[in-house]
Amino acid sequence: MKTFLRLVRIVRPWTGWMLLSALLSFLATGSGIGLLMTAAYLIAKAALEPPLAALQVGIVGVRFFGLARGVVRYLERLASHDTTFRILTSLRVWFYDALEPLAPARLMQFRSADLLQRSVDDIQSLENLYTRVLAPPLTALFTALLLWLLLGSFSVEAALVLLAFHILAGIGIPLLSVRLGRGTESGIIRQRTRERLQAVDFIEGIAELQMYGELERHLREMRQAERKKLSLERRSALVDGMHETLVGLTMNAAVLAVLWSVMPLARAGAESGILLSVATLAVMASFEPFTMLPASLRHLEADVHAGERIFEILDAEPEVRDPDAPAAVPDRLPITAEKLSFTYPGSTRPALDALSFSIPQGSKVAVVGPSGSGKSTLTSLLVRFWNPTEGTLALGGNPIEAYSQEELRRHVALIPQRTYVFSETIRQNLLLARPGASEDELVSALRAAGLGHFRARLDEFAGQHGMQLSGGERQRLAIARAILQDAPVVVLDEATASLDRPTEREVLRRVEEAFEGRTLITITHRLQEMERFERILVLKNGRLAESGTHSALMKENGVYCAMWNLQHRRTGTEA
Amino acid sequence: MNIDRRLLALIGPEKAPFVLSIAASTAVSVALIGQAAVLSLIISRAFLEESPPASLLPPIGLFALLSILRMLFGWLAHAGAKRASTAVRLALFERLTRAVALRGPLFTRSLPSGRLSTTLLKGIESLDAYFSQYLPQLFLALAAPVLILGAVFPQDPVSGFILLGTAPLIPLFMALIGRRAGAMTDRQWESLSRMSGYFLDMLQGMTTLKLFARSRSRRDAVAEAGEGFRKATMQVLRVAFLSSLTLELVGTIGTAMVAVGIGLRLLSAGLEFRTALFILLLTPDFYLPLRQLGLKFHAGMEGVSASREIFGVLDLAAESDHAGEDEKNPAPPADPGRSDIRFEGVGYSYPGADARALNNLSCTVEAGLTTALTGPSGAGKSTLVNLLLRFQSPDEGTFTLAGRPIGEFDPEEWRERIAWVPQHPFLFSGTLRENIMMANRRASGEELLRAVRSAGLEELVGLLPEGLDTPLGEGGARFSGGEAQRIALARAFIRDASLVVLDEPTSHTDPELEMALNRSMRELVRGRTALIIAHRPETIRTADRILVLEEGRLRASGTHAELMEEDAFYREAFATEGEERP
After folding, report:
1. Residues B501, B390 within the same domain
2. A501 has pLDDT over 90
3. Which of A227, A492, B484, B578 has its CA 20 to 30 A from that of A132?
4. B193–chain A nearest CA distance, Å
């Protein structure tokens, strides 16, 4: 219930639209009822053999409602689709807004693209919140109100009888079928998630399954899951069928009961006998919107389930928040760390352990160390994806928490190991880094990154649905972006690891040219041409093991020297 | 009219519930007509003949009885259709998974990723609407109007003609406008899915957006894209919905014509009130199934296009090469740890490929030794391994173990003799323990720990929050390529088979990791027969035997020293190969 109310709150800005669509839906149903009522009136009146003129009202009514029903239904479909799209957009914007402060720290556990895909699907299914969940009960209520008024003007007793049956069909039976069908819809969704995992395991892991003789077992498990899903579906269909049957029976009972209660009135005078047939047809037609309720309940359960999964992601507390009064970023930006420690949530071992160092403005520094030594964690702290657990990391004399996140990131460019390329044009992917960049600026950034040949392909689509960029091209695109970003501090996080040696050398040369005079921090595994760095920080197990220039470190004969020897002995013998 | 033969053939064994469902819905129509007759009788008696209510009790009872029957039959029809539909789906699910399982990994890799799982899950699911709604509705749309016409004609031919004249307009309009409007809406739904693709793109790239301080401004782009889509779509829908407007109008105007007609004929006498009411009560139910058919048309279309995809995969699976040889008396295989494996004149071409992947290849994998397989990419190394693993069978030639063709052995038992370490091991959803134990379910806890230690996984396991019981995959721990390889090594250790088939990882950014993997690999092949697709010079150099493949043939074989001396190609390859270039 709480989830449902939270969902409703998100679509509240569209109350007006929803009411309009509900009203149109009611008018369409009402016209259908009107058509049958006037038709019944017409023939009952005609049976009394009045002059032809007396039938005119009926004839006009029948024709009017006959046309109106179609036209109003058309308008209603337009309005409800329009509303649905509005709701979908606002759900997306809402989800985006809520997710933005959580990225990337709180999304680590949800890193998998599948999970985001699932959320997108969940949101897509929530678009039905209005049409399938909220609209049918509203229409049923409006229709019932109309009927009570109409019938009540003739006979209060008949209206009360109808009210009782409407309550039964609109509240009693739905409650019963909710009880009987509880858990089926969310069970089906859970089963589907399970099946999706199984299917991926089956298709991608079929070689392993075959080799280890596990294929039969896996097929059996898949079949079981499918069977379970189907039996849940059958149960849900059975409950639906029961619901429909009971509503149908209620309708027939209501026809009889209303007929019985107006019969005495009909006996009083021939003219009022018309009421008999009019009321019968009206009562019958009034139950039409009630048959939509079981589907509405099923969608409600599915939507609440989808909502719960979304809220589960969004209810996390953001890792970083902007300060109330952000400081201005100064011109000179030396970096200093003091007793900097960081432990990932859920982990017992610190990723960074009391790290202290300083990097002067404009210097070229390398951070090296084996995998798991904390190099990338340091990068994440520098762009403030995480807050330090202890100690401080300062930029330009202020701890980095003093700046607003966006200001900080404008001054610290990060070229990550794997860069994300959007399914947009190359141009749009570049403009991301500097929205107002001119054509010349784009081309010269591309050239500096060694992608000069892309100038003719600026308007081609990249990413998933466009041209396939190789790993090397992606990395060079990332470098072109960083050049455009024009930040005083640049961090290369294994940015060239996926390039082959000659290309790597070429790209690094260009990068150093392009970032001349900036602070350049290079995080790397491969110890190549280390003489070019003014300082090398060597990390091991989250601690600063040693630091200094290449030649000084080699003399020290410590961690760094061992790493260097390991790498160069091998390539040495092969050459 | 949307009836696909192959799709209908799926019903085959599930005919009974279907027939039951159709019979039940016919019974519903009959009960409906009966109800209309009784109700019009009750009303006309009460209205015109002023019968005392008590005298009306018998027809009222009849009405109640008919309504109960109608509802029960309705329920039966509903449940029967669903039952039949789920049975069809389960059968198809089994057929599809079986077909894929039979064709094995080469087949799954030949299809674009995601296509199979979508077909398997969403495809089969969307057949449900076809079987449980569209087909029954189609029969109902044929049966109910005919029954009602049969009831109306003898009573009032004029109304009968009006109904008969208007009814065909509905399917006609549906066919005329529906197709075009359907195509339009389809396109629009496609762009809807593109929209959600755009949204997903923004979410996945959010970290990158943040790095450029653009994440907040992109929010407006999401809103704008949605708004743009809404406007474009509404323009299309304004036209597309005209078709349903037309259908709706045929129904309501038909009802209005019948009503006005009988009203006027009541006046000019000749028609009884009871008959008129009877006809009026039935008229909406005459148009209803036809209109509903229009609504379910789309669901039906979806089912048909999904079925095309399903049959497409089934057909592909039927065509593609499969390893499941005719198992005539499968014999237990000999031990590859003691006997040589010989390939003699083996040839293989992939379906649809011009060049042969293997061409008259003859070579030997000697028992108890480590054989390295090398050669440029496309030389046939993986094909040779695939044949050995029996993911495919040779087009010509034989390969034998202890002199007996491998095709004679039961594939399952043959594979039991093999520990396989692929280049990109797949990790299953489930815990780390399950992922290793799958290679040998009989292994003890101690054997598991030994395998974990030998594969160099001990430290990693120690760092995981729940150790070996840490779940993998979605929402669980995620492993790097190097870690996945170590898990595959652990599988190979626990498998403890006499033949090791190993596809060496190409390169690593981390030299220390590479060293560790190398140590584990060496321990694994010790005392076993091993075939390694080797990429690193060191592995090739230290192998007991080296096979150099080129364009599907054996170019040279021997030890490192022999080859350096004899084979110019081998020498050259080693002179130019850097460590990152296999």
Report:
1. yes
2. no
3. A227
4. 9
Same domain, B490 and B451: yes
Interchain CB contact of B94 with A (< 8 Å):
yes
Tell me if B512 and A241 make a contact (CB, 8 A cut-off): no
A514 pLDDT higher than 90:
no
Q: Judge whether B1 is closer than 8 Å to chain A, CB to CB.
A: no
Same domain, B396 and B531: yes
Q: What pLDDT score was predicted for residue B420?
A: 93
- Which of B496, B531, B557 is a domain's end point? B496
Claim to verify: residue B532 and residue B388 sit in the same structural domain: yes
pLDDT over 80 at A498, yes or no: no
pLDDT at B4: 72
pLDDT at residue B441 greater than cutoff 80: yes
Provide the pLDDT for residue A468: 66
Domain residue ranges of chain A, discontinuous segments joined by +? 2-314, 335-574
CATH number, residue B482: 3.40.50.300
Mind listing the pLDDT tens digit for each residue in B276-310? 999 999 998 999 888 788 777 777 777 887 888 88
Q: Which residues of B touch A277 (CB under 8 A)?
A: 43, 47, 277
H or E element that contains A296: helix A293-314
B169 in a domain, yes or no?
no
> Would you call A259 and B46 a contact, using CB atoms and an 8 Å cutoff?
yes
Residue B376: what pLDDT? Answer: 79
Which chain A residues are within 8 Å of B238, Cβ to Cβ? 78
Tell me which residue in B93, B222, B391 faces A92 most closely, judged by beta carbons. B222
Instruction: Judge whether B130 lies within some domain.
Output: no
Bridge partners, residue A366, by sequence: A522, A536
- pLDDT in the model for residue A173: 93
The answer to whether domain A2-314 has CATH 1.20.1560.10 is: yes
Query: Which chain A residue shows the shortest CA-CA distance from B247?
Result: A70
Would you state the structure tokens that stand for residue B187, as one six-digit string?
A: 């396109």
Quick check: B574 pLDDT over 90? no
One domain, residues B501 and B391: yes
Q: What is the largest CA-CA distance in chain A?
A: 120
Element (H, E) at A286: helix A274-286
Its ipTM equals 0.85
Contact between B221 and A432 (Cβ < 8 Å)? no
User: Hey, are the CB atoms on A385 and B207 less than 8 Å from each other?
Assistant: yes
User: Which residues in chain B touch residue A482, judged by CB atoms under 8 angstroms apart?
Assistant: none
Find the domain containing B383 and state its range. Answer: 328-417+497-506+523-582
- Structural domain contains residue B405: yes
Residues 6 or more apart from A336 whose CB is under 8 A from it? Answer: A357, A358, A359, A393, A394
Residues B409 and B530 in one domain: yes
Q: Please provide the DSSP assignment of B298-351 as one string.
A: HHHHHHHHHHHHHHHHHHHHHHS-------SS-B----TTTS-EEEEEEEE--T
Is the residue at B149 inside a domain? no
CB spacing of A120 vs B98 below 8 angstroms? no
Counting Cα atoms < 13 Å in the Cβ hemisphere of B485 gives 21
Task: Give the pLDDT confidence score for residue B305 in this predicted structure.
Answer: 78
Same domain? For B445 and B403 the reply is no
A335-574 folds as Rossmann fold (3.40.50)
Residue B185 pLDDT level (bands cut at 50, 70, 90): low
Residue A189 confidence class, pLDDT cut points 50, 70, 90: confident
Nearest to B200 among A69, A116, A409 (CB): A116
User: Which 267-326 residues of chain B touch chain A by CB within 8 A?
Assistant: 267, 269, 273, 276-277, 280-281, 284
- Range scoring the smallest mean pLDDT among A430-434, B62-66, B323-327, B352-356: B323-327
> CA–CA distance from B292 to each of A477, B133, B240, B303, B434 (Å)?
54, 10, 17, 17, 50
**Same domain, yes or no: B490 and B501:** no
Whether A2-314 shares its CATH topology with A335-574 is answered no
Interface test with A, best of B109, B184, B212, B501 (most A CBs within 10 A): B212
Which residues from chain B sit within 8 angstroms of residue A371, using beta carbons? 510, 512-513
Mean pLDDT along residues B70-84: 92
User: Is it the case that residue B579 has pLDDT exceeding 70?
Assistant: no
Nearest to B277 among A43, A81, A242 (CB): A43
Residues in chain B with CB shorter than 8 Å from the CB of A481 are 212
Instruction: Specify whether the CB–CB gap between B532 and B504 falls below 8 A.
Output: yes
User: What is the number of structural domains in chain B?
Assistant: 2
